[in-house]
Amino acid sequence: MLLAALAASGTLVACGEGDVPPQTPKSLPNESADVKAGAALFSERCSGCHTLDAIDAEGSATKVRDRERVDGPNLNARAQTKDAVLYAIRNGGFSGAIMPENIVVGKQAEQVAEFLVKYAGKAGQSGSESDQSTGSR
Predict the structure, then answer these.
(1) pTM of the predicted protein model
(2) Which CATH superfamily is domain 15-131 in?
(3) Taking a C-beta distance cutoff of 8 angstroms, is the pair 33, 64 a contact?
């Protein structure tokens, strides 16, 4: 019984695990080591649920009609502040619905936040507002 519970909880540990393999980040040649590390961490741990063109991550629904409970916000359409990113990481998003708490911690959380502050909300603006997944997490 304990093994079954542990196995079931393991499927919710990281959005980037399961059927969707982590994306390989695009090269960010002019970035600091921290921003590059943040991109790699985001790709590894977050790209299964969030979309961000800067690293070719396609984890969010592209149309509202296709949205599933595990789809995170499309970060192409949503600029971020460092405080908001760190809050979401610590608390499992903003609604606490499905994002794992503390998916990265310490310096790694800071690196992901630096990366997202720089790249979220900067690309992927070609679709209409109603076709992009921008719901809160």
Answers:
(1) 0.69
(2) Cytochrome c-like domain (1.10.760.10)
(3) no
